[in-house]
Amino acid sequence: MFWRTLVKQLERWQSAFRHGPVARAAFVLGGLAIGIPVLLWLLGFDAEPAMAALWSGSVGSSYAIASGTLVRATPLILTGLSVGLAFRAGVFNIGVEGQLLAGAAAATAVAVIPAIGGGHVATLLALLAGAVAGAFWAGIAALLRVRFRVLEVLSTILLNFVALYVVSYLVRGPLQEPLHVYPQSSTIAPAERLPRLLPGSRLHAGFLISLVLAAAVWWALRNTAAGFRIRATGANAEAARIAGGIDVRRTTAQVFLLSGAIGGLAGAIEVMGVTFALYENLSPGYGYTGIAVALLARLDPLGVIASGLLFGALEAGASAMQRDAAVPSVVVSVIEAIIILATVIAWPSPVGRRDAATRADSGATVEGT
Questions:
Q1: What is the DSSP code (8-state) at residue 188?
Q2: Where are the beta strands (DSSP E) in 195-292?
Q3: Could you say which of 29, 47, 101, 262 would form a disulfide bridge with 37 (CB–CB 3.0 to 4.6 Å)?
Q4: Domain 32-360, what architecture?
């Protein structure tokens, strides 16, 4: 009896390790350590100087960590959080890129208004405006879903392009700098920018905002009634409506707006902390990369912090690799895609597993009756 109990316990520990965060981290880091040199070799590049540049540009020094990795990770944590929260409720928000651009445009418009004045008040108003604009942009897709049953996958993707062209119009029209020479807005005053966390680095307060927000969302999902409604709706909307008495339409609409607000806040933080102006191609695809960040974290808000840091390091290192070793940064993007696909196959989304289990339980109940 003792040995049988011991064997069962060892099997449980093995299963927990295989599906736990340690195993996933080892899988991802091992895949990167092996995959990048192999891909470089297959493409005909010298792997040694390229990997050295990747390391030095991401974690090779305190300046690289603070001014490269952490700065790049900030919008990725926020966009990953936005995507992950929406996906947990069964809302496939693919429009975080557009919501980020909407938030960046709104924050810039507020920050450059002379009547507001400078200082921290203008900074807070700009961040709030960015969140509201992101929620509004997501609200368009939410209205189309709730009122007209338009799939949010289609509407949010199309709204990404609309946001892109709206920004292009703004930087050539109402928000263009006074001389009308460059297609960009006026530069945000230094007093209105997000404060620096470390002297001599580019790391700004937006990084702390992203950490606090991720922790708050994690706590709310686990410990509040609203979090339970979100998780129940994402697991099985029909069961949540019938058995749980949850207003599914209202819950999904609220999550859509909250997801958009986080995406808009990411755009506002990028403007107020990094670029200090609005221009075309402000985002190198942070909204789309946020989908990969959320999937790698298996939609867990705290996991989004880790995956956002990983992707931030990869993107910062990819820029250094392209600059110092003449290796296209797209190589790292290919590796990121392969890792994401392998991770999703090895560890399916918890929402999908819960949904399948709920359907199986429902089927068993029907057969039993």
A1: P
A2: none
A3: 47
A4: Orthogonal Bundle (1.10)
Q: What is the DSSP string of 89-141?
A: TT-----HHHHHHHHHHHHHHHHT-GGG-SSHHHHHHHHHHHHHHHHHHHHHH
* Cα–Cα dist 157/44, whole Å: 36
Judged by DSSP in three states, 219 sits in: helix
Query: Can you tell me which residue has the tokens 């991401």?
Result: 58
Instruction: Report how far residue 7's alpha carbon sits from residue 50's, in angstroms, rounded to the nearest whole number.
Output: 46
pLDDT 10s digits, 310-352 = 999 999 998 888 888 888 878 878 877 777 777 666 666 555 4
pTM for the full model?
0.88
Of the candidates 146, 144, 158, the residue with the CA atom closest to the CA atom of residue 94: 158
Task: Enumerate the β-bridge partners of residue 45.
Answer: none
Where along the chain do its domains lie?
A: 32-360
For residue 187, the 8-state DSSP code is P
CB within 8 A of 216, min separation 6: which ones?
Answer: none
Tokens of 59: 């974690």
Alpha-carbon span 212 to 305, nearest angstrom: 10
C-alpha distances (whole Å) from 225 to each of 38, 161, 220, 322 are 48, 36, 8, 48
Looking up tokens 């339409």 gives 249
- In whole angstroms, give the CA distance from residue 110 to residue 248: 35
